[in-house]
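Supplementary notes for students who missed Thursday's class. We covered one full example, reproduced here. Read the sequence, then the structure, then the short commentary at the end.
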Amino acid sequence: MTEERQAVEQYALEHWADFKEYLEHPSISAQNTGIQETSDYLVRTFRELGAKNVEKWDDQGGNPVVFAEFKGQSDRTVLFYNHYDVQPPEPLTEWQSDPFKPTVKGNHLVARGVCDDKGELMVRLGVVKFFNEHGGLPVNLKFFVEGEEETGSQHVEKYVDAHQDQLKADACIWEGGGKNSADHFEVVAGVRGIVSFDVHVKTAEADVHSSLASYVPNAAWRLVEGLASLRNPKTGRITVHGFYDDITPLSSAKEEAVQKMDFAEAEVKKTYGLKQPLVTSHPREEVVNGTTLTINGLSAGYEGTGVKTIVPKEATAKLDCRLAPNQDPEDIMTKLRRQLSENGYDDFEVQLNVAEDAWRTPMDNEFVQTALQTARVVYGPTTKYVPNTAGGGPVRPFGELLKLPVIMVGVHYAKSGPHAPNEHLRLSDYAEGSYFLVKLLTDLAVDD
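Structure (token representation):
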């Protein structure tokens, strides 16, 4: 380990607690809890770190966006995207410590949101502090920190559009990223799209005694049968007409990169405690360029303890589709509604919740290649390029409106448990990721 690396990593481990208050704020966007307190904390922290400008934007509605900018020693500017909102901590009984009292357990830092994604912003704040004490920032930095990511980022595009001049940069480093199930670091260059929606059906004005199920329609059965009509149970393929039509095949270079991606099936099964076989024999390809139709939850009738024998009057399901680049969320919704009607379920009410487009930065982009080169120095030759993550996010406005290359590099690992009880980071990854970011920003300044 070089002297510089040892110094940066030691600094990160000694100073992470400088920002632990960030983890203590229960900024739960779904419950509108702690939003103002957390955004105020960020404004104060950016100012304490010497930002030349800090603003809290609320002109486009929704939860406020915190914007900050720092002056560096070169003309190159890097924009960071993060979000300060977190998922609800429930079920609380499964937590081994208070979710909003950051707790160190061996090599683990445990807290709600520490992986997704407060810990990653803490690394970035710590790096700013390090540079402040060691000669200054090598490049200009800007921060865009929003508070609605966990509820769909519905105002992000409006904020990006309205503040394009302030958000001008040369490249964007997104939240997320880290090490995969083989514990190899990944440089990710995009996201899949998503469309999230509710389906509701009502078959009566009131629940009916189950003895009348001989002739009374059952909303729960109708719902599950209608949803089942959208999928072939033998192949797993979605049977919605035109569902796959707009997926663009991967280039030969991307296909080669996909084949080199790690996928440790046994480790994945162990991590998630899977009880059934995988639903595909091509998991790498499906994660990068496939699409899904997923039932997130079902609700109908009586769900309490004991016995209540009824025929439910109504039933609701929450679903989402993960989309490949070039698939349009609104078009997918139209096709789903049409297919349900054609299958005889025109009484289903379908309500859109969230829609986000997929986005990829080209593999040969200079910024992507610089990040890969730096990562291979820091993390070794096992570093992987990944065209896009399995998940989504509001990346498109940054790529399309701001014309920025976007990469995802972070400090979580495959077992960090985002959204789950006992969410955590490994402190060793926190330290290593801090050095990677210091070196990447320095390398970008050299390339200027």
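Commentary. The radius of gyration is 23 Å. The domain at 3-191+358-447 is CATH 3.40.630.10 (Aminopeptidase). If anything here is unclear, bring it to office hours.
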